[in-house]
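User: Predict the full complex structure for these chains.
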Amino acid sequence: MQEGNPIINGTIFKQTLRANVKLWLIFTIVLTLLQIVMVAVFDDSTLADVSHLVEGTALAGLLGQTTLLSMLASTYYSIHGVIFPIIYIIMTANSLIASQVDRGSMAYLLSTPTKRSTIIVTQAFYLIVALVVMFCIETTAGFITIQVIHSDMDIVVADFIMLNVGLFLLMFAISSISFFFSSYCNLSKNSLAFGAGIPIAFFLFQLLSSVDDSLNVFSYFTINALFDTTAILEGENYWWKLIVLLGLGIVLYIASLEVFKRKDLPL
Amino acid sequence: MTIISLQHVTKDYGHGRGIFDISFNVEKATVYGFLGPNGAGKTTAIRHIMGFSKPQQGIVTVNGLNSWTNASTIQEKLGYLPGEVALPEHLTGEQFIRMMMDLRKVNDDTHCKKLIDFFELDASGRIKRMSLGMKRKLAIVTAFMHDPNVLVLDEPTSGLDPIMQQRFINFVREEKKRGKTILLSSHIFTEVDATCDEISIIKDGHVISSFNKLELLKMTEKVFHVKVKNALDYKQLGQLIESNTDFHLVNKNESAFELQIGCYPNNLSRLIKLLAAIPILSFNEVPFSLEKHFMEFYDRRVGGELP
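Assistant: Here is the predicted structure of the two-chain assembly.
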């Protein structure tokens, strides 16, 4: 498919894979292990004890109900599973475009008959595929762990899958932000300032808003709130939120392409 | 036939940096020298030829194609050697060559192998571990690997040892004989002097002088070094030269009885007649150096409204 397709360049994709696969592997392993551990350590009796302990404190809101999925929703799906992929995205998105422009090595790609659009589409394709595969592995590992360790429990598989789809869509949207600034900025430091600053700010806003109701206002300033785990678990309507994430991602990836095609490159 | 053409190209980066109303043409099978100090705008002009930047005003074409709108098409027949080597460090030299061949859709590697042998490139190691000279050689091989018709070379010999510099200069001459059109930017006189037919001097973003080297040689004053026997002859010759407006005394050394006489080519026979009357020990021409001509432009304050 890569050889025949004029938009995605197989040679560039191969080199990008070669240069980035190590980082991807590390983050995928960490994320998968975290997922497995978080699922494995769940024990409804200990959690019931804990929720008694924190009853009436601010942390009570964090824990909420004591099912496996709700526990995961308030821990893994709002902290670990969010921040690790964000770090991966920040590092990778910058290295895919901005750092190559900054270092000047992009000149070699552009001194061949390769279109700018081909470079952008190939690099974006890599980032998206890397995330898809990362979350497929993580989801599969989590699913297997649930089946093996909590075979006695009654877990709604569809909800578990939707949590992961939602998390992936959030990461898709966040990756589009980092990728956009990587395409827009000629200097790594600027690309990182925005491409890392904005996703981390979103993460912190989401974290703050979940600590206490009085801080709930922060949830209006973060796209992370669109990955609404409560809505997913309680069967409320969450589709439009996920569609907004998907749409945002698509728009910003297209914007990356357009901005890179038109800009001056200091090569 | 014009291969590379810049017409009134302006790109203002602010603070007096950039290029301003630059125009020149590079004809087929010639070597065009682009000479200027660091920061004069040579690389900026090259960026526009390569289609990396869009001119604010004016138009740049390569083989008749607009280099901004047809950047990728132009690259099929163009070889580019960047001024700064920035290669993908995670690859080995061989992997990089392979990748560039794939991207250029070059299947036959005989030409590439020839280049590797000619420049004594050892491409086996990781690029990260290569010396600057080796990286430059690698960049040279990748610029010429597809046997392009047009070459854009930004300070090509920097980082090469003197033997390799000479080899590269010979190589550029051979390529010219094969009909290649070459734009060579440099701040080193010797490489421009040795290779270029047409030369433009750029300073502070303005082309301040453009000339044909052969015509310049015909036009410029020639300097002759004359040595006479004794003080009497020395004095007599000195007076003869100084009293004649056709010639001028460039330099004199009384203790050695030596004089340097400047003379335009059309007055040459008159000078020889004049010298014939005086006993001379030696008489030879001081070779023309582009450097001298160039230095005049370097020092002079040219460039319009700049601070």
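Chain A touches chain B at residues 9, 11-12, 15, 18-19, 100, 103-105, 107-116, 262, 264-267 (CB under 8 Å).
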